[in-house]
Amino acid sequence: MARKFFVGGNWKCNGTTEEVKKIVTTLNEAEVPSEDVVEVVVSPPFVFLNLVKSLLRSDFHVAAQNCWVRKGGAFTGEVSAEMLVNLNIPWVIIGHSERRALLNESNEFVGDKVAYALSQGLEVIACIGETLEQRESGSTMAVVAAQTKAIADKVTNWENVVLAYEPVWAIGTGKVATPAQAQEVHCELRKWLRDNVGAGVAASTRIIYGGSVNGANCKELAAQPDVDGFLVGGASLKPEFIDIIKAAT
Ligand code: G3H
Predict the structure, then answer these.
(1) Does the C-beta of 210 come closer than 6 Å to ligand 1?
(2) DSSP class of 48
(3) Which protein residue's CA is at the shortest distance from atom 2 of ligand 1?
(4) Distance 193 CA to ligand 1 centre (A)
(5) 96 annotated active-site
(6) Residues 63-102: tens digit of each pLDDT
């Protein structure tokens, strides 16, 4: 099954109302390949979700950067999957390494969150990736397999899941994985999905790369057979995000 190229822009904890409007204007004015060729999703902070949704072109979609693990209630500061659905926000990023590291989100917690968000009808960008220490000790595949297994243990339908491989050492560092490094892990992840979930899921699930993707390195990464798109941080706040979207063709 052909996998449609996917480009996500994770704006992280950045932006003012004026800056957000400026980014959206740039996106709205851009000429990019059609929705049949590339799926584009941008992820502003919660407080700007509605604003972005109301201004953004209709062929691009919006994602939240997180949601609560279960139904909402007495969980101060959290935002539930139900609320995102109520606001017509179709996507959510779950398990970003910044949350895993800074907020101690475990593999199991991330797996539960992915399953709950899917059960409410959201589409999920599920993030995985190893630290530099883990890569240097040769445990990259064991780490990403364990992270993926914690999701696979809770999820039966993978149709609405995009898996984002984001090596922690490449995030925000300007030190991008080489195309060969990215392809190696993506290929292994696809094999893992084939062996542990099923051939259909392995063939159809988009595995996207994140970590210092920019306008200059995106083409070569996109040419790798198992790289199905990108999750972009810093460069998604800049006009070069358009060039990254164009890497789909
Ligand atoms: O979610 C996006 C990743 O954390 C990549 O961020 O492109 O700034 O390295 P970056």
Answers:
(1) yes
(2) G
(3) 233
(4) 24
(5) yes
(6) 999 999 999 999 999 999 999 999 999 999 999 999 999 9
- Break the chain down into helix, strand, coil percent, rounded to 5: 45, 15, 40
Ligand 1 site-directed mutation target among 231, 240, 243, most atoms within 8 Å of CB: 231
Query: Which residues on neighbouring strands pair with residue 94, listed in sequence order?
Result: 126
- Taking the C-alpha atoms of residue 100 and residue 106, their distance in angstroms, rounded to an integer, is 6
Nearest CA-CA partner of 129 in 151, 100, 154: 100
Place 2 in a pLDDT band, splitting at 50, 70 and 90: confident
**Partners of residue 10 on adjacent β-strands:** 43
Residues 122-136 pLDDT 10s: 999 999 999 999 999
CA dist., res. 192 & res. 178, Å (int): 21
Catalytic one of 96, 105, 130, 186: 96
